[in-house]
């Protein structure tokens, strides 16, 4: 008989209630509700072959991923660094970590490639009675911001395909201020190892700032391990 997996000593627990049209949970000292059209499993069944082309737009944004929860906790711990600063979230999805940033006093530009995601992100600002970040429909391959204009850039589990490595690096290199910092939360994906190789080749540096365990929002025996990386120019 196999032994049960030991539970890590410190786990981010959110006591989430997962519903088709919303997610309710508690984090960073307050209750949250995120509105969404449906869960990913339901939306997946509605997709047709046209969604799976070279520029596929799969609706991963309808879920709240463990990396976003870990990133939110990191932002709370670093409130003194981001308050009043120009910040940008890459791939904001339902808007949660952008709302956390705004809640903590940062000047947040929240971008996503999917107009439906931004529509729900706006609704979530209203549902949580928070000031709106600047919601922007943007392709990271075509930055629509001033060069080197952001003090901090963050993203939760955004580097999950090899084809994202080069354009995300190019976007960071274009948008991040010379002395700025980028924070990426990710669950140990092989693709991120390839991203780190690109950073080194381009003269950037990276540091693993934290490792968190996050209770999975869906049924799972063990918490999800999430790494928090800080990226910067040398």
Structure description:
By secondary structure, the chain is an alpha/beta fold. The chain has one domain (17-50, 58-233): Vaccinia Virus protein VP39 (Rossmann fold), CATH 3.40.50.150. The protein has 7 helices and 10 strands. Strands 6-5-4-7-8-10-9 form a 7-stranded mixed β-sheet, sandwiched between helices. It has a 3-stranded antiparallel β-sheet with strand order 1-2-3.
Task: Name the descriptors.
globular; 7 helices; alpha/beta; 10 strands; three-stranded antiparallel beta sheet; 234 residues
Question: What's the layout of helices and strands?
Answer:
Blueprint: E1 17-18, E2 22-27, E3 30-35, H1 40-44, H2 66-77, H3 79-82, E4 86-90, H4 96-103, E5 107-112, H5 115-127, E6 134-137, E7 150-156, H6 165-175, E8 176-186, H7 190-201, E9 204-214, E10 224-233
Parallel strand pairs: 4-5, 4-7, 5-6, 7-8
Antiparallel strand pairs: 1-2, 2-3, 8-10, 9-10
């Amino acid at each position: 008989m196999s032994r049960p997996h030991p539970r890590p000593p410190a786990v981010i627990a959110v006591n989430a209630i997962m519903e088709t049209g919303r997610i309710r949970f508690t984090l960073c000292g307050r209750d949250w509700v995120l509105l969404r059209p449906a869960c990913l499993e339901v939306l997946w069944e509605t997709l047709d072959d046209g969604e799976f082309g070279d520029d596929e737009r799969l609706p991963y944004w309808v879920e709240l991923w463990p990396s976003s929860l870990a990133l939110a906790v990191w932002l709370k711990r670093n409130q003194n660094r981001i308050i009043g600063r120009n910040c940008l979230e890459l791939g904001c999805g339902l808007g949660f970590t952008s709302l956390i940033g705004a809640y903590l006093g940062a000047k947040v530009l929240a971008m996503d490639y999917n107009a439906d995601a931004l529509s729900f992100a706006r609704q979530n600002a209203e549902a949580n009675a928070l000031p709106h970040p600047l919601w922007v429909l943007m392709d990271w391959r075509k930055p629509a911001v001033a060069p080197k204009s952001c003090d901090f850039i963050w993203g939760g589990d955004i580097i999950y395909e090899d084809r994202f490595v080069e354009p995300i690096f190019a976007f960071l290199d274009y948008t991040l201020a010379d002395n700025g910092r980028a924070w990426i939360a990710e669950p140990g994906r092989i693709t991120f190892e390839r991203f780190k190789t690109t950073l080194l080749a381009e003269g950037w540096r990276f540091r693993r700032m934290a490792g968190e365990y996050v209770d999975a929002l869906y049924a799972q025996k063990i918490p999800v391990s999430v790494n928090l990386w800080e990226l910067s120019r040398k």
